[in-house]
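Try this one yourself first.
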């Protein structure tokens, strides 16, 4: 609860509550149709990522850097940093051999930054990363304009999205399909000791919804958010209406019905994690 309070101990909004440990939910996707056309397999190493980015730049994106990165200019989920045994975002700490290591001050972090700097210079990453969409800057999704222009060949995305998702919702050209790739390693067959950093403890999130003070419906809005925190509200927010959008399987777990899972009508684009 402390993480959701201001320094004056005020609760400023209605925050998401993680009632269990949150695993990672984003990773990098590559244009699988481009990999096939250029006769590449799923990349495993940093060198293979670079070889593919070079081919994408020279053959597919018109010379534009094919890799989407976050607003830091770095991949958002340690996809490259993990090959160097470090984490690339705050708090930069990992446990190594029973001790806490601050990876941002290590030589391996400098090696990682040198690689990203060279990729920037060689136009292998998107140089306009500060001008992309909100979710691309967060490292939680592709930049839709770049994807529509066939400039994005590697981008972050949710595990829950299918390989044809971006074409299905008319963001990208028909025939596009993407494949999720593992974190890059420096050597083939050598497993990284660092992975996705987004595993979070059960806690109250630090962002949420607010109600304008001059709204005519403050009480109604509070009642709505109060309902969303209930078991019924959680079920409705995530799965919809039983018998219409979801049903329960033999184990008592919900699953989507055809209205959601196989709807021929295109739904609006999912803007990113944490939104319905």
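Now uncover the answer:
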């Amino acid at each position: 609860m402390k993480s959701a309070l201001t320094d004056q101990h005020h609760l400023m909004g209605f925050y998401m509550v993680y009632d269990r440990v949150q695993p990672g939910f984003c990773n990098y996707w590559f244009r699988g149709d481009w990999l096939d056309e250029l006769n590449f397999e799923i990349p495993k190493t940093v060198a293979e990522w670079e070889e593919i980015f070079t081919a994408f730049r020279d053959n597919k994106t018109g010379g534009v850097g094919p890799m989407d990165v976050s607003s830091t200019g770095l991949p958002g989920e340690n996809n490259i940093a993990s090959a160097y045994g470090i984490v690339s975002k705050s708090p930069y700490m990992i446990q190594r051999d029973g001790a806490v290591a601050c990876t941002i001050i290590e030589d391996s972090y400098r090696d990682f930054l040198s690689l990203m700097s060279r990729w920037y210079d060689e136009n292998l990453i998107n140089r306009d990363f500060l001008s992309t969409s909100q979710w691309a800057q967060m490292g939680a999704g592709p930049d839709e304009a770049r994807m529509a222009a066939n400039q994005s060949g590697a981008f972050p995305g949710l595990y829950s999205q299918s390989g044809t998702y971006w074409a299905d919702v008319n963001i990208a050209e028909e025939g596009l399909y993407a494949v999720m790739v593992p974190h890059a390693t420096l050597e083939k067959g050598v497993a990284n000791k660092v992975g996705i950093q987004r595993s979070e403890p059960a806690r109250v999130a630090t962002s949420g919804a607010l109600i304008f003070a001059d709204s005519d419906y403050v009480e109604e809005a509070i009642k709505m958010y109060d309902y969303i925190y209930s078991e019924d509200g959680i079920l409705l927010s995530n799965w919809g209406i039983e018998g219409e959008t979801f049903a329960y399987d033999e184990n008592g777990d919900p699953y989507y019905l055809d209205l959601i899972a196989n709807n021929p009508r295109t739904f609006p684009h999912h803007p990113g994690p944490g939104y319905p």
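Discussion: Residues 107-121 form the longest helix (15 residues). Residues 268-276 have pLDDT under 50 and may be disordered.
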